[in-house]
Design a protein that fits this description.
InterPro entries: CAT-like_dom_sf, Plant_acyltransferase. Keywords: Transferase. This is Benzyl alcohol o-benzoyltransferase. The strands form three sheets. The chain has a five-stranded mixed sheet. The chain has a three-stranded mixed sheet with strand order 5-4-6. It has a two-stranded antiparallel ribbon with strand order 1-2. It has nine helices and ten strands. It is globular. It has two domains: about 60 residues, no CATH class; about 270 residues, Chloramphenicol Acetyltransferase, CATH 3.30.559. By secondary structure, it is an alpha+beta fold.
């Protein structure tokens, strides 16, 4: 039997006999980009005395960093402040396209690719959502496999490299097929947006490799590709991206052949305080994204990172076997049908 690692948020939802739909009403048309609410808020009081503060926002308006800033402002006012400590700055023109537009960088997130083996997001409806908890011990064992020149890699980078490799092995993709790893990069540190800026300063970085090379090489191979993709997001990349979107009619990102992960561990969702202290859990609801990293605790109270990922049912056991080969710990997972 696989040991169960259960998020505290999931336990709260079970005790409340609630699902994601119960915690945030799905207002008609709210899933659209245009003619939809900019913000939805629902507070659900629990019989234990706690509460769940559910929010949904239009991503065109802000990114996660800006939204956490907004949530902290609400918390400060709720605790008695007259004005938030960080004043909001709109300045939507800050990342306007140049005149004339100049696309100077390659934006792989919008490549037109043929899907393989039914791996696009549209085909994930029958996949199962699984989670794995990486504690300090597991993370340390992964880092021990990293060569000296990559010692400064982040937890996200090394964990993403591990999962990309294990997932590709589990899916048994043809060795000659190209596979991709994509993730949002907060580019605000690459240049100097105004303090308090709420707009989007994220771009999707993309690493790519043949399936065969990714599976046959050690962890450092995937790690270097991910670090290289992250380093490509510069101020010029962001300016070029704005120009690309204008020239190409704002196309959708390509998800074919792509393992896409969002990292919420450093966003600060759990640090928001509305007067009752910090949150037990802060982040998106399960199922909101294909794969997600979030800060959490295991059933022993140890801090770590819980990873949620969707996989075809027939590949789940192989996926966790591959992880265990790398971290060499007993299986720790929960599987739930979507």
């Amino acid at each position: 039997m696989w040991a169960r690692i259960v998020l505290q948020m999931v336990e709260v939802m079970k005790k409340a006999n609630a699902s994601g739909d119960d915690l945030l009403y799905d207002l008609p048309s709210s899933a659209d980009i245009f003619d939809s609410p900019l913000l939805l808020i629902q507070v659900t009081r629990l019989m234990c005395g706690g509460f769940i503060f559910g929010l949904r926002f239009n991503h065109v308006m802000t990114d996660a960093t800006g939204f956490v800033q907004f949530m902290k402002a609400i918390g400060e006012i709720a605790r008695g402040a007259d004005i938030p400590s960080v004043q909001p700055v709109w300045k939507r023109e800050y990342l306007n396209a140049r005149s004339p537009p100049r696309v100077t960088c390659q934006h792989r997130a919008f490549d037109v690719l043929k899907d393989i083996q039914g791996m696009s997001l549209q085909d994930m409806g029958q996949w199962l959502e699984c989670s794995y908890f990486f504690g300090q011990q597991e993370l340390a064992r992964l880092r021990n496999q990293v060569p000296p020149h990559l010692y400064k890699c982040s937890k996200f980078e090394i964990l993403f490299a591990c999962l990309w490799r294990c997932r590709t092995i589990a899916l048994n993709i043809n060795p000659d097929e190209e596979v991709r790893a994509a993730f949002p990069v907060n580019a605000s540190r690459k240049f100097n947006p105004p303090v308090g800026f709420y707009g989007n300063t994220i771009a999707s970085a993309v690493a790519q490799s043949s399936s065969g090379k990714l599976c046959q090489n050690p962890l450092s191979y995937a790690l270097e590709l991910i670090k290289k993709a992250k380093d490509e997001v510069t101020e010029e990349f962001m300016r070029s991206l704005a120009d690309f979107l204008v020239q190409n009619g704002r196309p959708h990102m390509t998800m074919a052949r792509t393992f896409y992960v969002t990292d919420l561990t450093r966003m600060g969702f759990r640090d928001v305080d509305y007067g009752w202290g910090k949150a037990v859990y802060g982040g998106t609801l399960w199922g909101a994204r294909p794969s997600l990293f979030a800060s959490s605790k295991n059933n022993k109270g140890e801090d770590g990172i819980v990873v949620t990922i969707r996989l075809p049912p027939t590949t789940i056991e192989r996926f966790f076997i591959e992880i265990e080969k790398m971290v060499k710990v007993p299986k720790q997972t929960i599987i739930s049908s979507l």
